[in-house]
Design brief:
Length: 456
């Protein structure tokens, strides 16, 4: 586990930012929802000195914020206070806020944070990384997050709609890689890049994606995988905040529209040695034997960990043929129709692009599942088989499940997952997901009425 931030970091920030009045203290729960408290300026130093108490239930909530009674974090422990401490580098200004405000991300202390520590998704990733490092492998990662820019007001049918552009119109056509589409959201992009620079988030290339109002911005890879996911978490909050300032909603749902492209989170990963040399680097397009073992491990654990890549009912609406969302446990070289893609490029840049995650996935848990799969592949020297050439959709024999319950049960039954992530964490995570499944399936709404009200 990385060392928590020093008191000096907080004092320096206060000295350099005398105008800041409020601080958002947040922790990321298992659904990827930031939860926490709003503090006054004079409360900040105490957080760095002795942590901040947060209720044990904060890491065992549904996506709606409801307690999950059988998570083990409610009545059995009396909703006990657990101490969380600031993550180094997370104390940053939030330039889109009206009141001068900064944010600080916290994580549960390994001992003072019990029992909630076992449910902290950042700890799960840190343990997986430590396991790889113990064997001499240092993961390098980056995240690509797609999102929709939507109007804060729904259309006349009460449904979400693309945000208006600079000319006052709404994007209607798919203009993938369209430059005019980026120009039309320039005020938003200018503020977004400015905020990323201020927060030290390495935002790079922006592209117009496969649907009206859909955007993707890449984040630069980091030699510290935990830092890369910290930045992905804070970037997502930043995008939402800047969009709100511009009168828009940044939507990271996996499939917000039935007739338009879904939104993914592509994860880029390689392994380095202690000196920083890329262990996947090879003049061969399919990389080194170690890269192939890593692919083999990820393929062998795709079903077991699919719930961490696609955590919600809506996540599975994204998987459709010829949609650039993968449907099977496949891999290929410079091929976007497969789940695991080895991009082209010079040998030192050789890495794997994991294309399964929805943008609604928790970056910590998705990264943990990817890296744990890689570790298994290396330890067991797994062979991924021949890479797919051509249309991976047409060659997919055994398809991955596309329903929530099947993947929930796959994770529940996985002995590999219990070893990789810990039975205590899985107990909390699965309890939350079961509760969400029951609530979602028990809700009757517009689709039910439209399908069955007059026909059944």
């Amino acid at each position: 586990m990385s060392v928590f931030a020093s008191l000096h970091e907080a004092r320096s920030f206060l000295e350099q930012n005398p105008d800041i009045e409020m601080f958002e203290l947040f922790i990321l729960d298992n659904n990827g929802v930031p939860r926490g408290k709003l503090l006054h300026r004079d409360e900040l130093l105490a957080v760095y000195e002795s942590g901040r108490p947060l209720p044990s239930t904060i890491l065992g909530l549904t996506i709606h914020g409801d307690d999950v009674e059988n998570s083990g974090l409610v009545w059995e422990v009396g909703d006990i206070d657990c101490r969380a401490y600031p993550i180094s580098g997370s104390l940053q200004r939030m330039p889109w806020r009206l009141i001068p405000t900064a944010a600080v991300q916290v994580s549960m202390h390994p001992t003072e944070g019990l029992p909630a520590t076992v449910a902290d998704p950042r700890h799960v990733l840190a343990r997986v990384i430590d396991g790889l490092k113990a064997d001499g492998y240092y993961p390098v990662m980056a995240a690509e997050l797609e999102f929709y820019l939507l109007d804060q007001k729904p259309d006349h049918n009460g449904r979400p709609q693309p945000a208006r552009d600079m000319d006052g119109g709404r994007p209607r056509a798919t203009q993938v890689y369209g430059l005019r589409e980026l120009e039309q959201i320039e005020p938003f992009l200018a503020d977004l890049y400015s905020a990323c620079k201020l927060q030290g988030i390495p935002a790079r290339t922006a592209i117009s994606e496969y649907a009206p109002g859909q955007v993707e911005i890449t984040l630069e890879h980091r030699t510290d995988a935990l830092q890369a996911m910290d930045e992905a978490v804070r970037y997502k909050r930043l995008v939402k905040g800047v969009a709100h300032k511009h009168g828009m909603t940044a939507c990271f749902m996996a499939k917000p529209f039935d007739d338009l492209a879904g939104t993914g989170m592509h994860m880029h990963v390689s392994l380095a040695d202690a000196e920083g040399h890329n262990l996947f680097a090879s003049e061969a397009a399919d990389g080194t034997p170690l890269l192939r073992q890593a692919v083999g491990g990820m393929l062998s654990t795709l079903l077991d960990s699919l719930l961490m890549f696609c955590p919600n009912a809506n996540s599975y609406r994204r998987f459709q043929t010829n949609s650039y969302a993968p449907l099977a446990a496949t891999w290929g070289v410079d091929n976007r129709t497969v789940s695991l893609r080895v991009p082209g490029g010079p040998a030192p840049s050789r890495h794997i692009e994991h294309r399964l995650c929805g943008a609604d996935a928790n970056p910590y848990l998705a990264a943990a599942a990817i890296l744990a799969g890689i570790h298994r592949g290396i330890r067991e020297r797994l062979d991924p088989g021949a890479p797919v050439e051509g249309n991976g959709y047409a060659q997919a024999n055994a398809l991955l499940p596309t329903d929530w319950l099947t993947t929930l049960r796959a994770l529940e039954d996985s002995s590999w997952a219990r070893e990789a992530f810990g039975s205590e964490f899985l107990g909390v995570y699965l309890a939350v997901k079961r509760a969400e499944y029951r609530q979602f399936m028990g809700e009757v709404g517009e689709q039910d009425w439209r399908w069955y009200l007059h026909s059944a």
